[in-house]
Each structure stands twice: as structure tokens, then as C-alpha cells.
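for the writeup, i need someone to sanity check this before i put it in the appendix. the sequnce is what the collaborator sent (i think, or maybe the updated version? ugh). structure was predicted straight from it, no edits. if anything looks off just tell me and ill rerun, i have time this weekend
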Amino acid sequence: MGRPRKAVVEYRIYDLPQQFPIILLDGKDWHISDVKNKRLHFHNCFEIGVCHTDSGTMVFDDEELHFRAGDVTCVPKHIVHTTYSSKGTKSLWSYLFLDFHRLLGDAALPEGIFENDHPHIDFYHLFNREKSPRIYFYAVSVIEELREEKPGYEMVVRSLLHSLYYELLRLRDSQNFKDTSGSSNVHSLAPALNYINDHYTKRLYIDDLAKMCNLSTPHFSRVFLSVMGYTPHYYINKLRVNNACELLLTTSDSILSISEAVGFFSISSFNRCFLQTMGVSPRDYRNARGVDETPKSRCILPYTGWTQAEDLSPND
């Protein structure tokens, strides 16, 4: 009998705008399949989802939560999860991806309460429109403001999110929300993942990453390999290659300058890692306009965040 396949997990990275760090994924195409996705995923930022139609299930590390139309989901970064609709339906959603602290300012907010940089206060929950009407109102109002982009909408969005944030604080303090700090080793790696995502273009040292997670270097490397499917060094290079792919397709910069821009310190190292990850050389990838954009080997996938819903078939 063959060895059981390791579950595939995706790291979906959303590059939020610097001055207004929030994006909306919305529209008639955002129907969620009724096929349970075999690939769990987690994000580099906070996710708010609004279910407009039908029902289904959200799967976390060790728990399933059932949703229906009118529910609002709040999922911090680095919480591993997936969503699928009830059989025979395709629920319609709108999603917000954002950074609360960059939008609202650290001085105005309690310390990291929903940011999952602090594993002892991890938080996720489903809020129903009838039981939590303010949560629903604030979330839907933010979506409407981002859709319409009327004059002053950015200020209105910040104000609505400030109200939403404090409403979440009230509910957290008044209800017994589950502490998920021990549910996944992704949590213990969160400080390193944050740092890698923000500083992958610089020279990174495994010892420093381990210290950020309060782990010894050998233990950090073991946990990282177990959770991410790669050594820290290999994962960092995969993230660099992922970003190089975008530059190869969207700029006319030389391959040498692109290799330096994403954090490689020699062109030979860049070419070797790119070929190992993508199966083609950087030059061939650019000339083919990214025909095959899927890394050949993967367990954790450092992909750019999805911009459209996945259409899964029963054979996936």
C-alpha cells in the first residue's frame, strides 16, 4: 500500500495597496463550488466574507462551521481553512482582504487583537445577520462603498471598519469564542512568515527567523518543513521565483535586474532555482508568456491571492 498523500495547503498572498490596504473581490462570478476543495489555504492578511445566497460549510484545522445567506465570516491571517457550498448549490460571496492596523492606525487600536501575530488571541467566527446585525451592516456598507467609489469613500470605509473592529471586540469580550492557538503549527511560524513576506528581497538568516518564533534553529527548521512542506531556504526561494514570474511577464526589465529585485544574489542561483521551480528557464518562461505558471512540485503554495472563484469539478 502506498504512503498517504500529504494534504496540499496554499499560502495565498494578497499584495494590498500601500496607501489604502484593502481589496474587494466581488461580483456575479464569486460563486463557491459545492465540491469540497482538497486544498486548504491561509492568507497573509485579514479576510471578511459576506455570504449573499445559499449555504455551506467552512472547514478549519479541526472544526467545521456551517454558514447560510446573511452570514459574515472573519478569518485572521494564517488560519488554515476552506469553504464549500451545500450540495447542488453555489453560494454567492463578497470578500474583503485588509490590514486593520495600516488602515486605522496602531495608536487607535488595542494591541493586535485580531491580527494573529499574537497566537494566544487567535479568533475566527461566523456572524449571522439576525444575531449580529451591526457586523452585517458594517461589512455590507464597506463593500458598497468600495463598489461605488463615491467622493470621500476611503474615509467612509475607514470609519466603517473602525466601528466594525470595535463591534468585534465587544462580541469577543462578551462571548466565549474558541481559542485556536494550538490548532495549527502555522501559528507558531506566523512571525517568520510575516517577516519573509515583507523582506524576501533581502538576505534572510534561518537563525533570525527561528528567534522570531521563539524556537531553536533545529526545531524551527523541523516545524517549518513539517507544516510548509519545504525547508525555510527552499520556501524563501520559491516565493522569490513566484514574484519574479510576475516581473518577467509585466516588465521589460532584464533578467539580471529582476533576479536582484526579488532577492537573488547571483544570476546563476536565480536561474537554477527558477528552473527547479517552474520547469523552464526565466528566458523561456518570458518568451512563452508564462504558459505553464504552476510550480512543478508543491505542498504549500506561495501563490498570489485568487482574483476569481475556483470552479471545481467532481473529478478535481
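The longest strand covers residues 91-98. The chain has ten helices and twelve strands.
thx in advance!!
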